[in-house]
Write the structure tokens for this entry.
Amino acid sequence: PAQQQERLYEQVRSSAVEILVDRRLAGCGCIVDPEGLVLTAAHVVKNARRRIEVNSATTGRVQGTLLAIDAAHDLALLKLPSSVKAANCLRLAKRPPTAGDTIFLYGSPLFRHDVMVRGMAARSQTTFEFVDGEYIEVLHVAGLVTRGFSGGPWVNRRGELAGIQSSAMALGDAHQGLAFASPLEAARELIKSRTWTQRPSLGA
């Protein structure tokens, strides 16, 4: 029903954020803990040389601190200033989405703010894709995803976090309708451990 979809949109919007690197919009993220923890994609922030900022309707534009990166899943964890009250946050889903489940992605594609699109889990198991110079574990999601969504939350129909947008399948600059989402369980582990992880890879 339309009312349920509108409530879902507002629920995600209240906890979603935009990530600025060196004062430029670099991607998206979401608040996942009342302490002010923000989850995003590692490639959004790992090249930040000077300044990382978080911006949303609820927090305003504030400086963020990089707590940890999980390079094997393209995930990063930020911390909002203690003075900022993170009243709204996304709960993590109890289980990952399985093939056929409808999920929704929220973000700022190509500088268009507050956009939510529909996708569908394309398989139940995670797999590995070559992204940003290394292989990472991802969940395949059927849906057209453009630049700017990186780090944005994938949520289920209940508004629970199901994954974080990482990248997408493309031939040249043409997207092929298959997105790559960082897995739910990897996000859960990073939030719990808050430690930097770098897994060895043969690159093959």
